[in-house]
Amino acid sequence: MTKESQKTVLIRKIIFYIVIFFFLCGLGAVYYSTTYGNRSKKGLLRLHGWVEGTEVCISSKVKGNVIELTINEGYDVGEGQLIAKIDSEQIRSQLEDAEAYINRARELLKRAGNHLITLKSKLSGARITLDLSKKQSTAKIKEAQAGLEATKAVLKQAKINFKKAEKDYNRFLPLIQRKVISRSKMDSVEERYEFTKEDVERAKRELLRNEARLALAQSTLIEVRLRENDLITLEKELIVAQDEQRIARTALDSSIARRKEIEANLDDTLVYSPVEGTVTDKMIELGENVVLGTPLAIIVDMTQLYVKTYVEQVDIGKVKLNDPCRIYVDSFPNRYFEGKVILVAPKAEFTPRDIQMDDHRSNMVYKIKVGINNPEGILKPGMPADVDLKWDDVQSWG
């Protein structure tokens, strides 16, 4: 090999080693900047992701045809804005039926109430009549018993008087026959005998009459028992009437509740946006037939935008809730948007395919969400975004 050839080989080797040296230096610099420099520079973490928003899927609550549609994809809607109107003919018919049931239930309740009032009045009168009958019956029985007892006493005394007169008569009868006593004396004894005998017969007849009076007075107890039975019957009828009134009131309450349910269904034929946001997907067209649960549209709540991104395992200890962040998007290169950490995942996962990381995708990462302060509404879902997360309060943003 000539000297020139040796010199050429030596130059080539030197160039080769120089290239290898600078290549290794470049790799080292990239590794250091991505592994340490980007993570810790000025207490910041640089993260990557996309702007996303809370999606609200609006569905139909009733069945029918869409007769009005006020939105389209990309439209901005306000909270409470009318989105769609669904035909409500069937529901209106149900509402008319419910009104008819309510009127009927009210009439039944009114009748039950009137019947109840009548029974209460009858029951009150029956109680007064029963009480009066009891008092009258008791008075009649007591009066008849008193008369009977008085008659028994008279009869007893009449029998005593008769027995004494009879004894005198039997004793004086032989004496008059022997003409031992005068005729006038005998006439007096005989008159006494006849008089006391008549008193006994009269007392017996009065006793029979008073016994009959007592029996008649005691018969009034039957009338009292009949009135008691009438009172018991009315009380039972009152219980039944009260049950009928409760049933009628329950039927009325049920009909009113049914009407409120139908009215709520009628209100559901008007579909309003529950949030302020942007329509990202319209799933129905004017005239289409929908059923309960049919999705109508998807609205992204523009007041709750966030950036979903991922943090490597070595850096997750630096991240905590409410850490301040600055969000950068390509559409506004000369400004940033304020934000803060609103979610830190509790467990790690493999890096998703569509996420940009500064390290190998096979690394385990933690998902975090960064809420965005977007008062002007200029950020939109789907924008790529870079996030500077300030984990060190001592350091400045730089």
Give a structural overview.
There is one protein chain. It contains three helices and 13 strands; from the N terminus they run H-E-E-E-E-H-H-E-E-E-E-E-E-E-E-E. A hairpin with a 7-residue loop joins strand 9 (324-329) and strand 10 (337-344). By secondary structure, it is an alpha+beta fold. Strands 1-8-12-10-9-13 form a six-stranded antiparallel barrel.
Beta-strand percentage range: 15-25%
Q: Helix count?
A: 3
Mean pLDDT: 86
Largest sheet: 6 strands, antiparallel, barrel
Please state the overall shape, judged from the principal axes of the Cα atoms: rod-shaped
Strand order of the largest sheet: 1-8-12-10-9-13
Question: Helix amount, in percent?
Answer: 40-55%
Number of strands: 13
Task: Write the H/E string, N to C.
Answer: HEEEEHHEEEEEEEEE
Low-confidence stretches: 30-40
C-alpha end-to-end distance? 61 Å
Give the C-alpha Rg.
Answer: 58 Å
Class of secondary structure makeup: alpha+beta
Protein traits:
13 strands, 3 helices
Quick rundown:
By secondary structure, the chain is α+β, with helices and mostly antiparallel strands. It has helices spanning 3-40, 89-177, 183-267, and strands spanning 44-59, 64-69, 76-77, 82-86, 270-272, 277-282, 289-290, 295-312, 324-329, 337-344, 349-350, 364-372, 384-390.
